[in-house]
UniProtKB/TrEMBL annotation:
Family annotation (Pfam families): 3HCDH, 3HCDH_N, ECH_1
GO biological process: fatty acid beta-oxidation
Gene3D superfamilies attached to this UniProt entry: 1.10.1040.50, 2-enoyl-CoA Hydratase, Chain A, domain 1, NAD(P)-binding Rossmann-like Domain
Alphabetically ordered keywords of this record: Fatty acid metabolism, Lipid degradation, Lipid metabolism, Lyase, Multifunctional enzyme, NAD, Oxidoreductase
GO molecular function: enoyl-CoA hydratase activity; long-chain (3S)-3-hydroxyacyl-CoA dehydrogenase (NAD+) activity; NAD+ binding
InterPro entries in the cross-refs: 3-OHacyl-CoA_DH_NAD-bd, 3HC_DH_C, 6-PGluconate_DH-like_C_sf, ClpP/crotonase-like_dom_sf, Enoyl-CoA_hyd/isom_CS, Enoyl-CoA_hydra/iso, FA_oxidation_alpha_subunit, NAD(P)-bd_dom_sf
Record organism: Hyphomicrobium denitrificans 1NES1
Lineage summary: Bacteria, Pseudomonadati, Pseudomonadota, Alphaproteobacteria, Hyphomicrobiales
EC number assigned by the record: 4.2.1.17
Protein name (database record): enoyl-CoA hydratase
Amino acid sequence: MSEATAELEATRLKDWRFSIDGESIAWAIFDREGESANSLGRRPIEELNAIIERVEAETRAKTVRGLVIMSGKERGFIVGADIREFEAFQSEQDVINALKPVNALLDRIEKLPIPVVAAIHGVCVGGGLELILACHYRIATRDDSTRIGFPEVKLGIFPGFNGTARSIKQAGPMAAMQAMLTGGMIRATVAKAQGFIDQLVGSAGELHWAARKAVLQNRRSQSAGLAKMLLTKWPARGFLAGKMRQETAKKVREDHYPAPFRLIDLFEKEGGDLDAMKKAETKAFAPLMVSETSRNLRRVFRLTELLKAQAPKGFKWRPSRVHVIGAGTMGADIAGVCVASGMEVTLQDISPEQLEKGIKAQSKLFARKFKTRATRDAAKARLIADPEGKGIPRADVIIEAIVERLDIKQKLFADLETKIKSGAVLATNTSSLKLEDISAPMKDPGRLIGLHFFSPVPQMPLVEVVRGAQTRDEEVKKGATFVTAIDKFPLITKDVPGFMVNKVLTPYMFAAMKRLEEGEDKEKIDEAVRAFGMPMGPIELADNVGLDICAHVAEILGHPSEGSRLARLVASGRLGKKTGEGFYVWKDGKPVKSDAKFSTAELDKLGCELVEPMIAEAQKTLDEGVVESADLVDAGMIFGTGFAPFRGGPLHYKKTHPGAKATTARAAAE
């Protein structure tokens, strides 16, 4: 190491380690101080800039022959830009000023005459992926933990470090645009096939030597071939952009989520000249970054961190075996999700046919989760039919998902209490019964918690961890720890009717049904709520849930349905999607709807009115202390019901939209 380099590391670097080895290879190791993961904030960027200045000087002096960029963290490369710093941007010019030095830095890396090799293990997304695309050669570990991706669209933006142009240059427009438009995580093997990665190695231990060899052999990545790049030429580019708009519009509305549509516009206009695309990228990116949509989606990201924090740090208890009682759709799906997270699960049901059906239904989940036959077979082996409940004494977590009858649940838990091992979690998935009532016959009611999953279990990220009046804190901590272990978000809530999510959702559902009773068109109701930003309208949602379940929950929560259209449908056996008819007629799993059109103005007005009861009940729920904070109320509604993420949650929407306050006050009074 030269004297100047030693001084650079000793006096200036906090987030990077820099050295030059005996073979004249420079090593830049990213290990952000005080952080569990590497993110590209202002200081790491400034320090990397200083490193590149040193490498440029050493290159001119012919004292280095290459540069390797690696992570000093065990579990990840770079998780992207530091979104905590995004809040400082107040104007488009602030964004442009912040982007200029970063893009200049990546250009300098790209132009270095010596080979620059990125050695990647773990997650490499967002700004991290943009950084490695500026390198000349990319090596990654093959294991499942190594993923790349552009998640920016989930934050209401798209890549802003010239990643739009570099990704197209490297992988071609099809793979690059798909990665940017979907925000999905890409496995290392797929990333190599697409052209994002040049070489795979078996383990993190091999990265150092593979990177050294790549430098010594002066390896350079091959850009996307002519066949791929023909799609950047006109008229193919215009046709491709049109198809992208059509597919994107099927998933999101442009007025709610403009970022993917602006990215397509950028590609359509500038994709034939990637240098021009780099310049245009910043101008298109800046207004998105300071938009209300992006601010709210960044808020949603912070809410995910808040939910994760519901599980205590440093808690030593770790679950590995689960026993689920009840192999209906909910119970079987809970079992499947646990298996997909690596746990061994015994599934119990009094019906052999239901047990077989429930286990078989998990094949679809395993096929999505596991990409090789060996891993799928291993998952299937971890899901064990257990009609006699032999797995109960060995289980770390026992979850009941049987019929919603108090007497049956009471008898079951009184019996389970005598069979489970010390320290095991005892949980009910009830959606309407109080834990205090269920645990009444138990000798130790303090060990019962609620683990309230939402349907469909594999897709819904939230699980309410319900604290009964007598539940011990230790059991709640275990419940939250278990939820995070199966890759879901825990929300700790008091034991009140409907817990938090259903308590807030029910007044909204039944206010919509009241509108229907008064003659409002069901399709207009549903479209108005979708226009507001909900993933599904309340009438269609009721059909999806099951009208019998809706009526039962309504009764528990004080919204009786006697004499209503809902009651009549239930009495006639028309229960919604599961019977083929409810409020809607269902064909091929979808509701049959007319081609009726409604004006934007009337939909906007009606949509705001329809969500008023939800916002009012959300405030009431906070005031009653059902959960700890307004942020947790918002998080629960976003991840438990799909409340419009771009609006930041019902209470945040009320706070930031003055017009909502007056209407919500009216709804509360009514």
